[in-house]
Amino acid sequence: MFLDYFALGVLFFVAIFLFYGIIAIHDIPYEISKKRNHPHQDAIHYAGWVSLFTLHALWPFLWIWATLWREDRGWGFTKIQNEQHELHHEVFELTKQVEKLTEKVASLEAGMAMHTPTPPTSEQKEDS
């Protein structure tokens, strides 16, 4: 008789523990977003509750969404944009240098063409 009540008590304890454990787990992305001062923390919280009814199918995506944001760097794309801007500027400078060098080579070739005598052509050889 005592073991029946003890087993029933253990069963209730496990059921309540699992119920509150699942609710606590669903709140992890929201707690991460709160800690990181995420701009979408309310949406993450509501989506966490929706995830409860979808058997936590959305939960991994909420966790990713919550961890992508950091207050010091935002979404992290500004660093990439700055690097791309710097690369674009460097390519532009290199293009200008190549154009200047091309012009310089063309002027040097034109100057050499004026100062070097042209070899006689076959017609000039026959005349002499």
Write up this protein.
The structure is a single chain. The protein has 128 residues and is mainly α. The chain has 2 domains: 1-75, no CATH class; 76-115. Helices cover 79% and strands 0% of the residues. The chain contains 6 helices and no strands. It has helices at 2-26, 28-35, 41-53, 59-68, 77-115, 122-127. Helix 2 runs parallel beside helix 4 and helix 3 runs antiparallel to helix 4 (59-68). The model has no long low-confidence stretch (mean pLDDT 87). It comes from Photobacterium marinum. Keywords: Membrane, Transmembrane, Transmembrane helix. This is GTPase. The chain crosses the membrane at residues 6-25, 46-66.
What attributes characterize this protein structure?
mainly alpha; single chain; 128 residues; rod-shaped; 6 helices
Secondary-structure topology with pairs:
Layout: H1 2-26, H2 28-35, H3 41-53, H4 59-68, H5 77-115, H6 122-127
Keywords: Membrane, Transmembrane, Transmembrane helix
Protein name: GTPase
Organism: Photobacterium marinum
Q: How would you summarize what this structure contains?
A:
With 128 residues, the protein is mainly α.
Classify the helix fraction into a percent range: over 70%
User: Strand tally, please?
Assistant: 0
Quaternary form: single chain
* Element pattern in H and E: HHHHHH
Calculate the mean pLDDT score and round it.
Answer: 87
Low-pLDDT residue intervals, each spanning 5 or more residues: none
Q: What does the radius of gyration come to?
A: 38 Å
The proportion of residues in beta strands is: under 5%
Number of domains: 2
Q: Describe the biggest sheet?
A: none
InterPro entries: UCP028770 (IPR011223)
Keywords: Membrane, Transmembrane, Transmembrane helix
Protein name: GTPase
Transmembrane segments: 6-25, 46-66
